[in-house]
Design a protein that fits this description.
Layout (H helix, E strand, L loop, with lengths): L3 E6 L3 E8 L2 E4 L9 E2 L2 E4 L2 E4 L1 H5 L8 E2 L24 E3 L5 E5 L2 E3 L1 H20 L5 E6 L5 H13 L3 E7 H10 L6 E8 L4 E9 L2 E10 L4 H20 L7 H20 L2 E7 L5 E7 H26 L8 E5 L6 H11 L12 H14 L6 E3 L6 E5 L3 E6 L7 E7 L9 E7 L9 E9 L11 E7 L5 E7 L7 E6 L5 H45 L5 H19 L3 H14 L1 H23 L1
Helix pairs in contact: 2-3, 3-10, 4-9, 5-6, 5-7, 7-8, 10-11, 10-12, 10-13, 11-12
The structure holds adenosine monophosphate.
C-alpha cells in the first residue's frame, strides 16, 4: 500500500505529515523546518516556491503571489474585501473566476496552489525516500463546495490523487484525540493567517463526531496585520500628506513590518518599527502590546461570537466543553488565549504545536484511509446548508448545515412546457433566505427528458454530499426510468476538462524539462566530437581529399549551428553527419593506432 501524505495547505504556510506505527510524523527539511511558505514567485530565473519566493516579495511585489487560498474557488466579485490584502493584480478569468495576473498571464488559484503542493510533495518525497501519489488535504471547515473542489483540483494538477478533503479543525481533533481513552467534548479554535474556524466535537470510543462548526473565511492574522499597517500608514500620512498613495513595494514592506511586530508582541510588551521614508527621514515607532490589543480586540470578539454560535449549533453551553484545542499561528497571541480561556472557562490546550497539529491530523486521516489506523472513525459535518433556487428567487434548503456527511437529499422536478426536454436547476449553498444572498455553486441542466405533456415528467434529482463535503448530483426521470444527463457548470471553478488540460500541461512541462535535459547531454557530446575532429585534423588532416575536407567542414559548421538551436533530434542528426564526414580521419587515426600496436607488439616479441 503506497503512503498517503497528510497536507495542511495553509493561507500563509503549508506542511505535510505522514502516519507511522508510532503516530503521525511531520515532514521537515535538513534544518528542521516544517513550514513551506505558501508563496509562489515568478522571476527571471523561473518560478520559485516557499521561503525563496517569500524573500522576493519586497523586490518583486507584483510577481510574488501569497495568500492565494483567499481566492480559491471564488469569483472576482466575491473577493472584493480580500483585494486590500493582496499587492498583486487579481482579475476576472473565465466565467468571472478570480485569477492572478502575473508575468503577462492569467493564472488560476488552483494552479498556484498546485505549485505549493508540488513543493510540499517534493520535499516529502525527499524526506521519506518514496514517491507520493496520494494525499489527504485539509481545508477550513467553512469552505464551501467550490472552494473544496478548487482544492481537490489543485491536488490533481500537482499530480496527487486527493483521497480526502478534511476540515482543518476536525484534523486537529484527530491529532489531539488519537489514543485518548474515555469520552470527551472538545472545541477546536483555529485562528490562522486568513481564516477562523471553530468546531465542537465529541470523541467517544474512537469515534470523532463533529457536532457543529462555525467560523469566518475572512478573519485571521492578516486582519491584525492590517490594523498595524493602518496605524503605520496613518502616521506616515501625517508626515507626508494625507492623500499619499503607497506603491506596491512599500505596501509589501509595511506588511512585513506589521507581521513581524505582531509576532514580537506575542512574547514582548513592545515592538519597535523603523521605516526609511527617503527624503522625509525615518519613521521610528514603538508599538505597545496594549495598543495592539486595543486594535485587535474587535477581531478576537468576532471569533468569540462564532464560538457562541457553534455551541448553540451543538446544543451545548460553554461549561460542557472539556478541552479547547488551539490551532493556527494566531493562537499564540496572548489576547487570543486569554479571551478564549475566559469564554470557555478553562486554560486552552497548547501541547501540540499549533502550526503542526492540522497536518498531523491529516496524517491520521490518511492512516485511517490506508488501513493503518483501524480503531478510529471520523464523522464530519457539512458546514453550510445546500439548496436550490425556487420560484421567485428564494433558497429552498435540501440539506441542512451541520448534517453528518456523507448525506443525501432528493427532490422531484417537472416540466412547465409541453415536450420540454431539459430543466435548469440552480444550486446554492448558504444560510440566507434569498438565492441572491447565498453562494451560487453552479447551474445544473437536466437533459434527455423524454418529450411529454407539461408537468407529466417526474425527474428525481439526488444531491449527495460525499465524505469530502463535495456535492455530487444524479438524476432520473421516474416515469420512463431514463437517467437524465446532468451537466454541471461550476460557478467559479474549473471544469474537469480544464483540470485535465492543466495536468497535461504539467506533463508537457515534464516533457519540456526532459527535452532540456537531453539537449544538455547532446551538446556536451557534440563538444567532445568537435574537439576530437580538431585533434584529428591536426594529426592526420593531410590524408583527406579536398572534397572530403569541404564536406567535413560543412558538416562541422552545421553541427555548431545545431548546438546553438533547441532541437535535440536535429542536433543528434548533425552529430551523426559530422562523425561520418570525419570518417577518413578517424579511419587513418585507427590505422595509426593499430600500426603502433602491431609495431609495439612486434617490439615486445623481439
Ligand atoms: P497559520 O495560517 O496557522 O499558518 O497562521 C499564520 C498566522 O499566524 C499569520 O498571520 C502569522 O503572522 C501568525 N503568527 C504566527 N506566529 C505568531 C506568533 N508567535 N504570534 C502572533 N501571530 C503569529
Amino acid at each position: 500500500m503506497s503512503l498517503i501524505l497528510g497536507i495542511d495547505l495553509g493561507t500563509t504556510n503549508s506542511l505535510a505529515a505522514y502516519m507511522t506505527p508510532a503516530g503521525p510524523v511531520v515532514v521537515r527539511d535538513a534544518s528542521g523546518n516544517a513550514l513551506v511558505p505558501s508563496v509562489v514567485a515568478f522571476g527571471e530565473g523561473g518560478v520559485t516556491v516557499g521561503a525563496a519566493a517569500r524573500a522576493h516579495a519586497v523586490e518583486n511585489p507584483l510577481a510574488t503571489i501569497y495568500s492565494v487560498k483567499r481566492l480559491m474557488g471564488k469569483g472576482l466579485a466575491d473577493v472584493g474585501g480580500d483585494l486590500k490584502y493582496l499587492a498583486y493584480p487579481v482579475v476576472a478569468g473565465r466565467g468571472g473566476m478570480a485569477c492572478v495576473k502575473v508575468a503577462g498571464r492569467e493564472i488560476t488559484p488552483q494552479e498556484l496552489s498546485a505549485a505549493v503542493l508540488r513543493e510540499v510533495k517534493a520535499r516529502s518525497e525527499a524526506a521519506i525516500g518514496a514517491e507520493i501519489r496520494q494525499a489527504v488535504i485539509t481545508v477550513p471547515a467553512y469552505f464551501d463546495d467550490s472552494q473544496r473542489q478548487a482544492t481537490r483540483d489543485a491536488g490533481r494538477i500537482a499530480g496527487l490523487e486527493v483521497r480526502r478533503i478534511v476540515n482543518e479543525p476536525t484534523a486537529a481533533a484527530l491529532a489531539y484525540g488519537l489514543g485518548r481513552k474515555g469520552d470527551s467534548t472538545i472545541a477546536v479554535y483555529d485562528l490562522g493567517g486568513g481564516t477562523f474556524d471553530i468546531s465542537i466535537l465529541r470523541i467517544s470510543g474512537g469515534v470523532f463526531q463533529v457536532l457543529a462548526t462555525d467560523g469566518d473565511t475572512h478573519l485571521g492574522g492578516d486582519d491584525l496585520d492590517m490594523e498595524l499597517i493602518e496605524l503605520i500608514a496613518s502616521e506616515i500620512r501625517d508626515r507626508l500628506g494625507r492623500d499619499m498613495a503607497f506603491p506596491p513595494a512599500t505596501r509589501q514592506a509595511m506588511r512585513n513590518f506589521a507581521e513581524a511586530a505582531k509576532i514580537r508582541l506575542s512574547s514582548q510588551d513592545q515592538a519597535r518599527i523603523e521605516i526609511d521614508l527617503g527624503a522625509a527621514g525615518r519613521l521610528e515607532r514603538t508599538i505597545t502590546r496594549e495598543e495592539f490589543e486595543a486594535r485587535a480586540a474587535k477581531w478576537v470578539d468576532h471569533t468569540i461570537e462564532h464560538c457562541r454560535s457553534a455551541l448553540a449549533g451543538a446544543g451545548l453551553t460553554a461549561d460542557r466543553i472539556d478541552q479547547v484545542v488551539m490551532v493556527g499561528g494566531c493562537t499564540r497571541i496572548p489576547l487570543v488565549s486569554r479571551r478564549v480561556g475566559e469564554f470557555f472557562a478553562r486554560v486552552p490546550y497548547t501541547a501540540i504545536n499549533p502550526d503542526e497539529v492540522v497536518a498531523m491530523g491529516a496524517a491520521v486521516q490518511a492512516g485511517i484511509l490506508a488501513g493503518v489506523q483501524r480503531d478510529t472513525l471520523l464523522l464530519d459535518v457539512i458546514p453550510l446548508s445546500l439548496g436550490i433556487e425556487t420560484l421567485g428567487g428564494a433558497m429552498g434548503k435540501l440539506i441542512m448545515r451541520n448534517s453528518t456527511v456523507p448525506c443525501q437529499a432528493s427532490e422531484t422536478f417537472t416540466t412547465y412546457a409541453a415536450g420540454q426536454t431539459s430543466v435548469d436547476i440552480h444550486v446554492l449553498q448558504g444560510e440566507r433566505e434569498l438565492a441572491r444572498d447565498c453562494r451560487s455553486l453552479g447551474r445544473f441542466q437536466l437533459r434527455g427528458i423524454p418529450p411529454m405533456p407539461a408537468g407529466a415528467p417526474r425527474i428525481s434529482v439526488t444531491f449527495l454530499i460525499d465524505a469530502n463535503g463535495i456535492l455530487n448530483v444524479s438524476a432520473r426521470e421516474l416515469r420512463s426510468g431514463r437517467e437524465a444527463g446532468v451537466q454541471i457548470t461550476p460557478a467559479h471553478g474549473l471544469t474537469s476538462g480544464e483540470v485535465d488540460a492543466m495536468v497535461k500541461e504539467s506533463y508537457t512541462h515534464a516533457i519540456a524539462d526532459l527535452t532540456e535535459h537531453r539537449l544538455i547531454d547532446l551538446r556536451n557530446e557534440a563538444g567532445r566530437i568537435l574537439a576530437a575532429i580538431d585533434k584529428a585534423v591536426a594529426e592526420v588532416g593531410a590524408v583527406m581529399s579536398p572534397a572530403q575536407r569541404a564536406a567535413m567542414d560543412e558538416a562541422v559548421g552545421d553541427l555548431k549551428a545545431k548546438m546553438e538551436g533547441g532541437d535535440p533530434d536535429a542536433l543528434y542528426a548533425a552529430m551523426k553527419a559530422a562523425n561520418e564526414a570525419a570518417m577518413p580521419l578517424t579511419q587513418m587515426q585507427m590505422d595509426q593506432v593499430l600500426q603502433k600496436t602491431v609495431m609495439g607488439r612486434k617490439i615486445d616479441e623481439v
